[in-house]
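Posting this for the archive.
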Amino acid sequence: MDKSITIFHGSHRVIETPEFGADRRNNDFGLGFYCTESEELAKEWAVSSLQGGFANRYVIDTALLSTLNLNAPPYSILNWMAVLVQHRPFSLGTPVARRAKRYLIDNFYVNVNAYDLVVGYRADDSYFDFAESFLNNGISVEQLAIAMHLGKLGEQIVLKSRHAFLSLSFAGFEVANKETYYVRRKSRNDEAYRRYQELLEDEGDGLYMIDIMREGVRNGDPRVPKNQLTQNADHDGRRL
């Protein structure tokens, strides 16, 4: 079975040879090279309101790479949250939020550094706000799980190990002009936020962060929404 896939990295520059260990440590899943299987998303991520960018294209052989897919069974949205709060700075304005961060890491963290590749949601723009709202007890875990699908942001694939970097081959690039792709990026983000506001109208009796801590919710608790097996993931939750 062919295990080579094409992935894209959005950037303001062309990157023919990604350098292991050169990226920022406070990205979603820590130090790594952040990519996507969608060229269009890579172009959106490459641009800003001020400048265009490039969708760098690579081929990677995943046959001998270990892959953690945080969006597949047996993981849940709380595993993704735990990884996120471990690496990204959050606004922790209340004692509840500070305790919530520690609780998630202690009970739901998955060691992403033990894998060559990590697959999961990208906490960009509004999506980071959704995660922060959950951490601060503003939305339930059920609402968070739904919110991460709003706007169809897609998944990111992160190269975490030197082995993964050595399995990567540059295959060219495409230009992303800001006039087109910043508009698309903003539209996607605005749509997610609009639908998120609609979601908040249906408050319901969900499980909030304060409930999770008070009731000692752990991995595998049936009250936490489980990730569903997708067509891109096999029975081990390995996507690639």
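The helical segments are 39-46, 77-87, 95-108, 126-135, 141-147, 162-166, 178-200, 209-214. Residues 231-239 have pLDDT under 50 and may be disordered.
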